[in-house]
Amino acid sequence: MTESKLASLTLKGFFAFGLLLVSSLAAPAQQAAPSLPLLFDARERLARPDLSSLVRLRFLTSVDFPPFNFTDQNGKLSGFNVDLAREICSELEISDKCQIQAIPFADLKDALAASQGDAVIAGLAVTPELRRQFVFSRPYLMLPARFVRKLLVPVEGKTAAALAGRPVGVVKGTVHEAMLAAFFPALRAQTFDTKDALLAALKDGKVDAAFADALQLSFWVSSPASDKCCALFDGPYLSEHFLGEGMTIMLRQKDSVLTSAIDHALAALSRNGRLQEIYLRYFPYGLY
């Protein structure tokens, strides 16, 4: 079975991401920062295992999943996941023992199984098959679904109920099509073969709104490609059944101590705000 990423950006979308990151630095100071939902209970205290005997911690990632992991214009390994791996090592006070290596996405599972690395942080979707072979950290980021609507079309209300009876586009054969039908049966779904066709139809006014991955929609509405036609609307919508367990770190089953240590670090970074800082670095306009 071929493993898959949770979400991805096209190359064109990646260039838009770079422009957004630069423009965010000039955003008005009074603009509210998008908030990252906490996935750890603030009252929860996860034990910090003893890692004194750890020789090294080798994170494996890929370079084809921007803005999570990619090679920047200087050839440096960068991205949300890369920065998070470094913060995990810092929190665990093992930065001098940490390594981050990029390999082809298709090789990640076999490399971990062969002990060529200790943890995979690359947006690998959790599946029952993988759970039989590996263990996973607690999720550190959920990728929701969102609506985006055409601004020139008047909408009475601020929730999805306001779209009842209106044409709402979705890519056919996707989890978002199934989720739209299950969550919003009153909406009039109109399917498209590809994401590009869907967004073109929205921009041209052939549909009043669209329902898709919030990551891709967030970058698109803020990029020149949208021509300021549209805006995110309502949501976010989360569903483990349709969208999976979220972003996690995959480890070998025998490495229960290391898994607990990473969970401890993720909880600490969530509480002290460092996870939010990394999130804002790569998602200045927010997903939620």
TrEMBL record:
Protein's cellular compartments: Periplasm
Signal peptide (from-to): 1-32
SMART domains: PBPb (SM00062)
SUPFAM superfamilies: Periplasmic binding protein-like II
Organism superkingdom: Bacteria
Keywords linked to the UniProt accession: Signal
Protein name, entry field: Amino acid ABC transporter
Residue ranges of domain Solute-binding protein family 3/N-terminal in the record: 56-286
Gene3D superfamilies: Periplasmic binding protein-like II
Taxonomic path: Bacteria, Pseudomonadati, Pseudomonadota, Alphaproteobacteria, Hyphomicrobiales
Stored PANTHER family: L-CYSTINE-BINDING PROTEIN TCYJ, MEMBRANE-BOUND LYTIC MUREIN TRANSGLYCOSYLASE F
UniProt GO cellular component terms: periplasmic space
